[in-house]
Amino acid sequence: MTQEMQWTYQAVYGKSIVTWLLYLPGYMTRKFWFFLLSTCMWLPLLTKAQVAEDSTATTHNQHSPKERITVGGYIDVYYGYDFSQPATQDRAYFVSSARHNEFTLNLAFIDIKYTSDRVRATLRPALGTYMAANYSAEPAIFRNVYEGHVGVKLFAGKNIWLDAGVLGSPYTNESAVSKDHLLYTRSFAPEYVPYYLSGVKVSMPINNKVSLYLYLLNGWQNIRETNKGKSLGTQLEYKPADRWLINWNTYVGDERSTANPENRTRYFSDVYAVYNPDGKVTATACLYMGAQKRLNAAGGMAGETAYWFTANLMGRYKFTPAFSLSGRLEYFTDPDEVQISPITGEKGFRTYSASLGVNYAPAANILLRMEGRSFFSDKQVYQTSRSTPAKTNALVIASMALSF
Fold this sequence. Notes:
Largest sheet: 16 strands, antiparallel, barrel
Oligomer: single chain
Number of helices: 4
Strand content: over 45%
Order of helices and strands: HHEEEHEEHEEEEEEEEEEEEE
CATH topology of the largest domain: Porin
Organism: Rhodocytophaga aerolata
Helix content: 10-25%
Pfam family, one: BBP2
Number of strands: 18
Protein name: Porin
CATH superfamily of the largest domain: Porin
InterPro entries: BBP2
Shape: globular
CATH architecture of the largest domain: Beta Barrel
Structural class: alpha+beta
Number of domains: 2
C-alpha cells in the first residue's frame, strides 16, 4: 500500500469512527466527542514530534527535563443474567456490570498521561453502564470523567507529590477496572465506598516499605461539593516483603446534603491485604466499618450513630499462565440503611455472597471470564422473577476486557 493510499484509508476509517461515536447516546455533547477523538487521532503524531524535538533540545542542553505523553485505553464488555429477571433490566444494589440480559459495555476509557521530572497529569474520559450508574448524581459535565488530575513534585530531591483533581480511590482492595482483580464482578465492599474522589492528594514515602497518602476532599464520592465542609482521608501502604501488600485507609467528613439533610460526620476505616507468594496463588482479604452520625427526630445533635460493616476473602490459582480459577466469600451488613435501602421494603440490609469464576488470558492484554455468583440473606432483601420478596438471588456473567 502506497503512502497516499494509507493516508486515504486512515482518513476514511477515522471519519467512520467519528461518525459512529458522535451518535452514541450519553451525556457529553457532540462537539466534545469531536474534540476528544480528533485529539486522540492526532496525539500519536504529536507525540513523535515531541520526542524528536526533545532529542534535538537535549543535544544542545543536557539539562532539559524529560517529557513524555502516552496514550492507552481499556474496554470491558459483558453479558449478565440475573435470575430475578428485574423488569427494568437494572440489577439491584450494584453499579458495576449491573445490566441484566443485555450484551453491553461496562467501562471504556482513553488513558492519556503526561510526565516530566517535576510534573505529571492524567485524563481518562470514559463511557459505559458503570459510568451511567455511578456518576448519575454528578452534573452532566462530569459524568464521563473517570479520572482527571495534575500533579507536581514539591521538592527536587524528595519524591513527594501533590496531585489535584478527580482522583482514584484508595478504599478497599478492588477498583472499577476488572482486569486488575481476581474476579470479574465487584464485591459489596467497593460498591459502597467511593470509587472516585475530588480534591488534593499528597504522596510521600516514609521508607522503602512504607508510604503515606493524605487527602483533602469535597466529600464521599462527589465531584461537585454538597455542603460547606471538607473531608479528610488517609492511606498507609506497607510492603513488608515482595509477596505482601497491606493497606490501612481512613475517612472523616461532614456528609449532610440535600438528599440526606439529617447526616452529619461520617467515620470510616478499612484494612486490606494482598498475598502473592509465587505467582500461582494470589489471595486478598478486606475488612471495613463505617459510622454515620445523624440528627435525631427533633433535629437535635444528640442523634443516632448508624453503622455498616463488611468482610471478604478472595483467592485465585493459576493452572497455567493463561488459565486460572477464582473464588470469593463475603458478608455485608447495613442494619440502619446508611448505604442500602432494600428494594423489598425490608428494614435493614444483610447478605452473604459466594462467587466462582474461570479466567482465560489468550494474550497478555486480553482477559475472558465466566463467573457464577449466589446471594443469601436471612432477610427478604431480594426478589424472585415474579417480583415477590426472596432471601436468595443468583447471577451468571461473562466478560471480555482489553487493555492497550
